[in-house]
Every structure is written in structure tokens, then in C-alpha cells.
Amino acid sequence: MRAIVEPARAIGHLLLVPLLACGDNLHVHPPACAANPFDPLRYETLLSNGPGLTEADARHACQLRGEDLAIFSDQQELDAAAPMSITPAWIDGRLDVGIDAWLAASGCAAYLPWEIGFPLPPVRDRESCTVLDGAHRLANTSCADLAYDGQPLTAFCEVPYTGTCEAAGALTFTVQTDRIGNGRAACAAAGGHLLRIDSTAELAAASQLAMASGVLTFWLDATFADNAWSSPEGCPSILPWAGGQPDLTEPPRCVIYDLTINGAQTVRCDSVATAVICEAN
Fold first, then answer.
1. What is the pLDDT at residue 265?
2. CA nearest neighbour of 40 among 4, 8, 12
3. What is the pTM of this model?
4. Domain ranges in the chain?
5. What is the CATH architecture of 171-280?
6. pLDDT tens digits, 6-32
């Protein structure tokens, strides 16, 4: 993968594609991607220090940060989020020629109000993917391209939004400073889970709770192993990385939020004990 330089802080919606029989033909009716309430903390742009990023490289770069290529679920999200991108940028949306539909990687139908004249038909056997152009309009090009309109392609990333994991519960501070495994167990015993950040407001509330409790760092519920981020419940957390982060050497890696630098950073899961904030289920 090409090296990624420091991002300019700016994925997915998990739904299955149902197959419906109609007469003698089999038709696919992909569901729309779940509505995603806009929060600027969920998005970021990643740049390349080379000639640009292919769609696959862009997606992988997002995923290494606990994100994926951005999906727009409606015009409101498009209008709010697109200006945060550094364009031209890859977003989630790939032509499935078998059903002649544009789908996100998870199989849902992304909201893609195309610029006039788009989408263009794919060139020969080259796959076609979606980009935000320099005017934040939607266009398509070969997924293997590194540039669009003569400009290097970037990655516009978004923290995956499931529609089921994001209901924030009440936050409680557990007095102990502990390792992440013990912290997760303590939260589970109390009927909750380790803190996952779902919004700017929740990050502010957790930070205030930590400072009121006299601590400056606390765990976030995310672990990097096997080249992917995960949590015990399968729910993503916003990971508002500090500069130079994440450091993914020597996995598994876990995440703490550090109020002295106002950002998240990775640590070895078994080498650090820090504050535990639990969130009600």
C-alpha cells in the first residue's frame, strides 16, 4: 500500500442484499444504506505522498484507521460532509454489472445523485467506482485510477455507521485504573461495555467525566488484530487519532484517549493500565 501522510480530520452501513424472484427472472433489490446523522467527527480525508490512491488502496487506508470509504445516505449528509473532503476523492460506490446497480461494499445502495452526464459506462472490463470531483459532485472512473481530472485521488473516510450500535448509553467512571481486559469485564458485569465514541457530544461528555475524576487517559473499545479493528460486540467506535497515529506495529494494539493531546493513540494491549469508562447497554 502507498504511504499515507497526516490526514485532514474529516464506513459503512451493514445490510444484506435480498434476492427476490419475479416471474422467470431473479431480480436483486438492494436496500438503501441506513440513514447516518451527520457528525463531523466521523469523517476524514487521507492523502497519498505518491501519485494518488486506487480505490482499493483508499479503502484499505481508511480501514487501518477503523473507518471505511464514506457512504452518503441522503442529500443532507452529502451537503454537510462533502465540503470536508479534499477532492478528488474516492467514496463508497461500485458498479455491480450483474444487476446494473451501484452498491456500497456492504451491499446496500448508496445515495448517488450523479453529476449531469454520469455515470459513464465502464471501460471494457475495468471496474467502475465513485469519486467526489473538485466541485464535490459525483462522478465515476476506473477503480484502478490514481488520478481524476489530472489531480491525485485521495480517500474520503467515514466511521462505519450500523444504525444499531450508535445508541449511546449513560457513562459511568469506574475508579480503578486497569488493563483493558479487566476493564471490559468490569463493564460487562455492570451491564454495559467499555466506552465507544459515537459522536462529538459523547466524546465531550467522556472527557468531562474523566477530568472530573482526576484522570487524563481512558480506554476506547477497539482492538487491532489480524489487520482489522474490532470490538467484542462487533460495534465500531470513532477513533479521533492524534497526529502520527495509529501506530500499528506489534499488534494486537488497543486504544486510549489522551486528554493532554486531545487525541487517540494506540498502545500495547497488555502493557498499559489506564482509566475505565463504561457505557450502559
1. 97
2. 8
3. 0.87
4. 19-158, 171-280
5. Roll (3.10)
6. 454 433 332 323 333 333 333 456 888
